[in-house]
């Protein structure tokens, strides 16, 4: 989440002028509508250069989009950096899904650095699918008690270093159906109180939870393998216009394996669906539902299911990272998406979401309390071949919570 220091619309204007993605060839003949333009086309028009009205189609070429990151949030200060997307095919588009890599690097005025690389890649004919979520962050996060009813006024800032390696490889069993195995490692080191938090550190939710579960306070690690089954009939992982996605994942975290602090287990189930509202697909609905359940062991505090902690950090818009956290989580969202201009350059979204999380020690169960969110956003087409958008969203939640979000690629 990035809260703009200069105002959200000023930031979006800067991105509109500065984003100049590299041009690439058409991903598939039907993907680019006649007359469509992206930021690269807009830049040519500004320089009074002619547009390529019928470029040759070569699916071997990579489709690139690049944009600066400019923003601020209280725990990090002013943030600057860069985010990008590379899309490509490893086989003919008729038999192979598009692959996508999203990466970012940011640095803040409070000397916080975050580097991430997340991707979904398909080999020729979709024989294999590779998913990755890898991060290195020297960062901080406000900590709260567990459950959806946790007190917003009890937040205490914690600083830590976070290193993540999540890699999964899937074999296609039949068209659109994949089974796979993975490795998941999360390491939180040098955990310590943030600025002005030393005096209250012993009373924080993090310390009390960790002490109650026999977890170390300075370093906590979760590590283990996973098995997964997923079905994916979407036309794109970047900006889906149709189809659906379903996944079930079991993760077994093992004490002592690659430094694991404790043993525990997690089950994740997820579904996404996309429904056109008009024949030309300029208006559509997107649905997202997922649940996480941990059991059979003590989960390190920062690895408990929490808001915005999905692989791309796009759930729970309206709330900050880790605002709600607990042993089990259910999340649902519906988003309306529309193309505003005939040339496809600008679009918009409106969304509603809801989160419910447990605090089993306090006898708070799923659906006892909830955290609704809502908001809207604008879309700027960075690359019409891959349908990669620059996404600017404003979200609002309960108790005055709000956030401004700048991302490359759709939320889901």
SSE-based structural type: mainly beta
Write the CATH fold name: Porin
Major β-sheet profile: 16 strands, antiparallel
Radius of gyration from CA coordinates? 21 Å
Helix tally equals 3
Sequence stretches where pLDDT stays below 50 over 5 or more residues: 1-30
Structure description:
- The chain is mainly beta.
- It has a single domain, classed as Porin, CATH 2.40.160.50.
- The relative contact order is 0.15.
- It has three helices and 16 strands.
- Strands 1-2-3-4-5-6-7-8-9-10-11-12-13-14-15-16 form a 16-stranded antiparallel β-sheet.
- 7% of the residues lie in helices and 48% in strands.
Per-chain topology:
Layout: H1 8-18, H2 39-46, E1 63-73, E2 77-88, E3 99-108, E4 113-122, E5 128-143, E6 156-174, E7 177-193, H3 205-212, E8 220-232, E9 243-253, E10 264-276, E11 283-295, E12 328-339, E13 346-357, E14 371-383, E15 388-397, E16 402-408
Antiparallel strand pairs: 1-2, 2-3, 3-4, 4-5, 5-6, 6-7, 7-8, 8-9, 9-10, 10-11, 11-12, 12-13, 13-14, 14-15, 15-16
């Amino acid at each position: 989440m990035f809260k703009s220091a200069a105002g959200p619309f000023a930031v979006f204007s800067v991105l509109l002028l500065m984003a100049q993605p590299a041009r690439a060839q058409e991903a598939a003949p039907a993907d680019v509508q006649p007359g469509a333009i992206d930021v690269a086309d807009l830049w040519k028009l500004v320089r009074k250069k002619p547009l390529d009205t019928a470029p040759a189609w070569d699916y071997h070429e990579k489709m690139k989009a690049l944009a600066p990151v400019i923003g601020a949030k209280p725990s990090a200060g002013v943030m600057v950096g860069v985010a990008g997307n590379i899309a490509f095919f490893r086989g003919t588009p008729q038999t192979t899904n598009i692959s996508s890599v999203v990466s970012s690097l940011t640095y803040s005025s409070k000397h916080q650095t975050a580097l991430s690389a997340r991707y979904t890649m398909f080999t020729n004919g979709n024989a294999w699918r590779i998913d990755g979520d890898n991060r290195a962050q020297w960062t901080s996060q406000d900590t709260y008690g567990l459950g959806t009813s946790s007190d917003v006024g009890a937040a205490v800032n914690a600083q830590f270093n976070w290193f993540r390696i999540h890699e999964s490889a899937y074999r296609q069993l039949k068209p659109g159906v994949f089974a796979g195995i993975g490795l998941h490692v999360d390491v939180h080191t040098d955990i310590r109180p943030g600025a002005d938090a030393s005096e209250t550190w012993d009373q924080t939710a993090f310390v009390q939870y960790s002490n109650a579960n026999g977890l170390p306070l300075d370093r906590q690690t979760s590590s283990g393998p996973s098995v997964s089954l997923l079905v994916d009939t979407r036309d794109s992982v970047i900006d889906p216009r149709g189809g659906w996605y379903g996944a079930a994942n079991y993760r077994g975290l093992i004490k002592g394996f690659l430094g694991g602090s404790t043993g525990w287990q997690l089950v994740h189930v997820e579904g996404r669906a996309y429904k056109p509202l008009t024949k030309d697909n300029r208006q559509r609905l997107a649905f997202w539902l997922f649940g996480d359940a941990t059991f059979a062991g003590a989960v390190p505090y920062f690895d408990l299911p929490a808001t915005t902690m999905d692989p791309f950090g796009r759930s729970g818009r309206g709330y900050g990272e880790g605002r709600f956290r607990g042993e089990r989580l259910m999340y649902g969202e519906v988003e309306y998406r529309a193309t505003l201009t005939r040339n496809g350059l600008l679009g918009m979204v409106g969304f509603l979401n809801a989160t419910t999380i447990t605090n089993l020690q306090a006898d708070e169960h799923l659906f006892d309390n909830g955290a609704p969110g809502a908001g809207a956003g604008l879309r700027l087409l960075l690359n019409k071949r891959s349908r990669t958008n620059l996404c600017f969203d404003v979200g609002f939640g309960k108790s005055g919570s709000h956030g401004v979000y700048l991302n490359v690629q759709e939320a889901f």
